[in-house]
Amino acid sequence: RVLFRSHCEKTSQTKLRKVYFPKIQLRSFFIGRMPATEKMRSILEVSTAKKGKTEQENKMQAILLAGGLGTRLRSVVSDRPKPMALIEDKPFMEYVTRELVRSGITEIIFAVGYKGSMVEEYFKDGSGFGFHASYAYEETLLGTAGAIKNAGRFITEDRFYVLNADTFYQIDYTRLAKQQDEQDLDMALVLRQVPDVSRYGKAILDENGILTGFNEKTADPVPGTINGGIYLMKKSLLDEIPEGKVSLENEMIPRWLSEGKKLGGFVNDGYFIDIGIPEAYFQFQEDVKTGVVH
User: Fold this and answer.
1) CA distance 277 to 140
2) DSSP-assigned beta bridge partners for residue 230
3) For residues 15 and 242, what is the distance between their CA atoms, to the nearest angstrom?
4) Measured between alpha carbons, how far is residue 166 from residues 84, 169, 170, 234, 276 in Å?
5) Residues facing residue 72 across a β-bridge
6) Average pLDDT, whole number, for the chain?
7) CB atoms within 10 A of CB 106
8) What pTM did the predictor assign?
9) Parts of the chain with a pLDDT under 50
């Protein structure tokens, strides 16, 4: 029996009427309680499968390189890893992870070394910050590529982002992924324009955005493009990195270029700062206070 309200045509009075439905009709109304038909089961299974596929497709991973000693900043930040240096009562790395979450990153693997437990104690499983967290500890310094190799056991997707935890760089992450897809790049990376490349070494892109030179040294204080320190790597590159201490910038990228691997990217003009020295650390504090960075 089902009770419902019906408005009578002849009066304005609302009445309750008892209505009896055949048993076969009740199955469709109470499918949550009664066995569904085979057709309905198929619909539910397809719907669930699509939902699972969407969640999987939306998963994006990033490795944050946070294992350095931070010796240049030790004069002002001595009790914690450099990426955990406090900015307005929050560690610098929280600002980095916020930017990643805003860009759609769902899982962050922290590659940690010196006082790495402090990172895990703060971020825990990451749920309080909008992502899932994992931790890859280094017993000895492994270099940038070695740290990526060590953290690679947590990588489950076909590609993943890599960035330095002591650098804040605002970029369009979807643009990097789009370029990698369109040009079938083994690695996509971000460059930035500087007034003097002699301090860093040039990174050169051709007119199509393909990397043709990297870390090329010059004594001339001329403007140019340098490595911005953000990468989107295919998972297959992990197998190319040897065990032990290995540099991504000085060893692997030059080697991949010489081997004919396809690397490319774009020049980005977003906000950039590396807090490796006290002056930059104080500058970032000021930029947060004044609202330049949120």
Assistant:
1) 23
2) 163
3) 80
4) 9, 10, 13, 23, 7
5) none
6) 84
7) 17
8) 0.80
9) 1-55
Polymer length in residues for the chain: 294
Give me the residue label for tokens 């930035």: 192
d(CA 130, CA 14): 50
List all residues 6 or more positions away from 188 whose beta carbon is below 8 Å from its beta carbon: 176, 177, 179, 180, 231, 232, 263, 264, 265
Structure-token pair, residue 88: 């307005």
DSSP secondary structure string, the chain?
Answer: -EEEEEE-SSSS-EEEEEE---HHHHHHHTTTTSPPPHHHHHHHHHHHHHHHHHHHHT--EEEEEE----GGGTTT--SS-GGG-EETTEEHHHHHHHHHHHTT--EEEEEE-TTTHHHHHHHTTSGGGTSEEEEEE-SS--HHHHHHHHHGGG--SSEEEEEETTEEE---HHHHHHHHHHHT-SEEEEEEEES-GGGT-EEEE-TTSBEEEEEE--SS---EEEEEEEEEEEGGGGGGSPSSS--IIIIIHHHHHHTT--EEEEE--S-EEETTSHHHHHHHHHHHHTTS--
**Gap between the Cα atoms of 266 and 268, Å rounded:** 6
Question: What are 1-27's pLDDT values in tens digits?
Answer: 444 444 444 444 444 444 444 444 433
CA–centroid distance for 16 within its chain: 58
Read off the pLDDT of residues 191-231 as tens digits, 9 standing for 90 and up: 999 999 888 889 999 999 999 999 888 888 899 999 999 99
Q: Which residue has the tokens 């914690």?
A: 80
